[in-house]
Design a protein that fits this description.
The structure holds 2 protein chains of 2 kinds. By secondary structure, chain A is α+β, with helices and mostly antiparallel strands. Chain A is 39% helix and 14% strand. Chain A is built from 11 helices and 10 strands. In chain A, the strands form 3 sheets. Chain A has a 5-stranded antiparallel sheet, covered by helices on one side. Chain A has a 3-stranded antiparallel sheet with strand order 6-8-9. Chain A starts with a helix and ends with a helix. Chain B is 73% helix and 0% strand. Chain B has 5 helices and no strands. Classes of the chains: A alpha+beta, B mainly alpha. Chains A and B meet through helix 11 of A and helix 5 of B.
Chain lengths: 360, 124
Amino acid sequence: MLDDDRLAHLRAVADLPDLTGTRYRLIRRLGRGGMATVYLIEDTSLGREAALKVLSDPDPSGDLAARLVAEARLLAGLEHPNLAPVHDVGTLPDGRVFYVMKYVRGARLDAWVATAPDRPALLRLFVKVCDAVAFAHAHGVMHRDLKPQNIMVGEFGEALVMDWGVAKRIGDPGTPAPQRARSTTSGGGEAVPDGGDAAGGRPAATRPGSIIGTPAWMAPEQARGEVDGIDARTDVYALGAILYWLLAGRAPFEPGPGEETLLRILEQSPPALRSIDPSIPRPLAAIVARAMAKPPADRYRGAGEMSADVLRFLDGAAVEAYAESIFERGLRVFARVRTLAALIAAYIVMRVIVLWLTGR
Amino acid sequence: MSKPVLGLLLGAVLGLLDGASAYLYPYQDVKEQIIGIMIGSMFKGLLTGLATGYFATRLKSLPLGMLVGLAIGCLLSWGVVAMQPPGHQYYVEIMIPGSLLGVVVGYATWRFGRGPRAATTARA
């Protein structure tokens, strides 16, 4: 008789990808998602480490394989410094479809935040994430599952937006997206299955009435399953939720049981940022509020617009999302030029001293 | 506004004001030549601004930009003093304001001037 531990071990070994005859050597498992598992491998031809993403479960219909290939092709078409490049795609000797991408050395955003970077550092990193998403939007691709667990921070502070498994190309109803039985990572709440058509035919992840994403981070239109209503502003909402989390240290809607999180997203507003942390500047809170507006029409039109507003805040300029008072404007302008004002004051003081010395 | 242009304008304006402030000194020869001093000071500020702005485009450090401004301001002010006839060489009165003016211009050009645009040429 095999005990449970040995059985589990045998199952784990049987799940390992068969890399026989390939140029890859398995090193270890990195993580498992709803439909695929990611392994750290060595590309023996190039002598470098890479990440191999392979289907986790049997796929008799071929739907999941098609989706994985589609994800690889979609990602390969998005060449950007903040997106992990795809190196290879194919089928393993065991028949499972895989693709190989850059192995990102670093930490997930939630782990990186635990190192307590200051607010400007958080915002600068957030701008990089926005830039990657804006790049994808410019190429007609929406991520649809943005959350801290899908963002990696590299060793040199670079941000990489990962897991484009449920991404959708605008105007492409047949864009494959994997069925998600569970979230790829913990901490973000359970993802809801997208209602994919496992029986065959065209992948149904984008079918009307389906829900795609991770509840704690999804936009109201996503929570309602309005696939046709999803556009770049849906990703903007998730970016707003990520910025909220970066600033407040908690998600706007904490994951709850069942559909409770979805109901909260639809019916409630998240706690005001400044009620959680009064030190958060009002313009920054306004940026988050605009990005997370319930009606998509009230949000930024794209990640690029949001990124520009965050950059304006970082530069000490007025942000579009916040109508400041004359007093606030004066304070902001003074804060921006205070060093210059101090230098000019120093010059005047020096002039007075020299005049006084020469006049004695 | 680009850093050299901002430096040029700021240097000229501050140089003019710096020269005008010389009128407050209790020296009769200075009061008599105030127009010439203002023009000379403006030209000195203009050169300081231009040079500081040029270096600001190449420096990645604000303190270094201010230090360069200080050095250029100090050097040009020294040049102005050295050109004066003996008995009229006001080192303290000219070099200290000139140097501080360089620091101000160095800071302002680095902080508020626009850097060179990144190359966006696509390669086939």
